Amino acid sequence: MANTPQARKRIRRNNRRAEVNGARISRIRNFVKKVEAACEAGDKEAAAAALKSAQPEMARGVARGVLHKNTVARKMSRLSKRVAAL
Question: pTM of the prediction?
């Protein structure tokens, strides 16, 4: 257990940040799932619209430091490729 006041504060802060970051990651996953569901259904227009809304969310995740930029670049590339193949 943390002994110093600073270490106790860090634990509180880390717990709050973990909640916020978890919510952000969950939100991004939901956007990605919408794109994948539209691809599965074969609906190119819906998939393209879902991808267009998912891209800024994923970029925001990188800007906030929740996801690594190469991870997001890879996922965006793969999603774009799937949508273009429809």
Answer: 0.84
Taking only the tens of pLDDT, the chain with its 86 residues reads 788 999 999 999 999 999 999 999 999 999 999 999 999 999 999 999 999 999 999 999 999 999 999 999 999 999 999 999 98
* Both tokens assigned to 48: 């393209």
What are the backbone dihedrals phi and psi of residue 14, each rounded to the nearest 5 degrees, phi first?
-65, -40
Site of tokens 């600073």:
6
Give residues with Cβ within 8 angstroms of 57, minimum separation 6: 27, 28, 31
Token pair listed for 36: 């994948």
Q: Tell me the three state secondary structure of residue 66.
A: coil
